[in-house]
Design brief:
Layout lengths: L1 H37 L18 E2 L6 E2 L2 E2 L3 E2 L9 E6 L4 H17 L2 E7 L3 H11 L5 E5 L3 H6 L6 E5 L5 E6 L4 H16 L5
Parallel strand pairs: 5-6, 6-7
Antiparallel strand pairs: 1-4, 2-3, 5-8, 8-9
């Protein structure tokens, strides 16, 4: 009886050690899943806030012409120069980008800031069709076919929008599509603060 009881205890202890890593894994996976579902991506911190914009070059969207003039691309040195500007990463295949687009047009008309667009991992024809259909709020429109520029800027997904102050430093980052609410409560105040010489 004692011998059988000892064997049962040993077997049950052995099972405990086998199950422990599985239980730990399930707990961690559950916390991670909860964080993904409940987290607000717009509150993700950016290490670039207050730093100069990354040294990137975004060539023009091939064949894009507005009012008979080709729309230029841009590079990091075009930003700043004493004026606050906005940089928006978008793609034609991104549904939230379609929803956001009218608000970029409104942002431009209300603030007068230059908006620089980055067409991310897209075909030139698709990018041109998007602009033709939804309008062009951009002062300059560059492309990031490889996605390398987005990595340099710390972009998590499409769309993302940055406010760049007059010295060429990133003052604010908005993750996800701009909504009516975030336009009023986040974007416009961030632009005003940058124009007043502060950092958000």
């Amino acid at each position: 009886m004692t011998s059988g009881s000892t064997e049962a205890n040993t077997t049950s202890k052995g099972r405990g050690w086998v199950l422990a890593p599985l239980i730990v894994f399930l707990v961690i996976a559950g916390l991670f899943a909860f964080g993904l579902v409940s987290g607000d991506p717009s509150k993700l911190p950016s290490a670039l806030i207050g730093r100069p914009v990354p040294a990137t070059d975004f060539p023009a969207l091939e064949g894009l012409v507005v009012d008979g003039q080709p729309v230029p691309g841009f590079q990091a040195s075009d930003l700043g120069k004493g004026r606050v500007s906005v940089v928006n990463f978008w793609a034609s295949w991104c549904v939230p980008c379609i929803e956001e687009h009218p608000l970029l047009i409104e942002l431009r008309s209300r603030t007068g800031v230059d908006i620089y667009g980055v067409n991310y991992k897209d075909q030139a024809e698709s990018g041109r069709r998007f602009i033709g259909r939804y309008g062009n709020p951009f002062t300059a429109l560059g492309t990031d076919r490889s996605g390398r520029g987005a990595i340099e800027w710390g972009v998590y997904g499409m769309p993302e929008t940055f406010v760049v102050d007059g010295t060429g430093r990133i003052a604010f980052k908005h993750v996800g599509p701009i909504s009516k609410d975030s336009l009023e409560k986040l974007m416009l105040p961030a632009i005003e603060k940058a124009q007043a010489g502060g950092q958000n």
